[in-house]
Design goal:
The protein is mainly beta. Helices cover about 10% and strands about 45% of the residues. The chain has three helices and 15 strands. Strands 1, 3, 4, 5, 7, 9, 10, 11, 13 and 15 form a ten-stranded antiparallel beta sheet that branches. A three-stranded antiparallel beta sheet has the order 2-8-12, covered by helices on one side. The chain has a two-stranded antiparallel sheet with strand order 6-14. Strand 3 and strand 4 form a beta hairpin. The chain is globular, with a radius of gyration of 16 Å.
């Protein structure tokens, strides 16, 4: 059985278990049913990637970091890699999914993410898709995604993949 965490439970996990670190303002980022993630860096893909069944031939595409101009990124139509500011430390009984904030959707943009598995720790990334021909501006530190957390009551196998501890410096 899974149960979605609400604001008071999310705050407790953050304050007592450091489920999220490196946040800007808990009172702003904690929502009724999730936690808003902020942009740290934005990249453009410059090389192809590869996926396979057992990861023996997996390859991450090369990227180029884009620098903000006067406090914002001005992005044209297309796909971008975004690194979030926050570090997540998922407890052994909590997993999460991320959804785009509605402002993105209402402006012809969205994000694509994976699952934050039980036991995962790191600074995650997502794909930002700008569909509007007019482009889109993102302020430095903008909130673009909302993590929604689910608590389970059954023991699970904890995340132990290649991305454990990613982007933590």
């Amino acid at each position: 059985v899974k149960q979605m965490l609400v604001d008071s439970e999310i705050r407790k996990y953050i304050e007592e278990n450091k489920m999220i670190e490196n946040y800007t303002d808990l009172d702003v980022q904690i929502q009724a049913n999730g936690f808003d993630l902020c942009v740290d860096k934005i990249f453009r893909w410059r090389g192809k990637g590869r996926v396979d069944f057992d990861n023996s031939n997996r390859m991450m595409g090369k990227v180029e970091e884009l620098n903000p101009d006067t406090g914002k990124w001005v992005l044209g139509r297309g796909a971008y890699k975004v690194m979030f500011k926050e570090i997540t430390n998922m407890p052994e009984n909590v997993c999460a999914i991320a959804r785009p904030r509605s402002t993105l959707i209402r402006n012809g943009a969205t994000i694509f993410t994976g699952i934050w598995d039980c036991g995962y720790s790191g600074r995650s990334e997502c794909t930002l898709w700008i569909g509007s021909d007019r482009g889109f501006e993102i302020q430095e530190g903008a909130r673009i995604a909302q993590l929604v957390f689910f608590k389970g009551n059954v023991p699970v196998t904890l995340y132990n993949g290649e991305f454990q501890g990613e982007n933590i410096k």
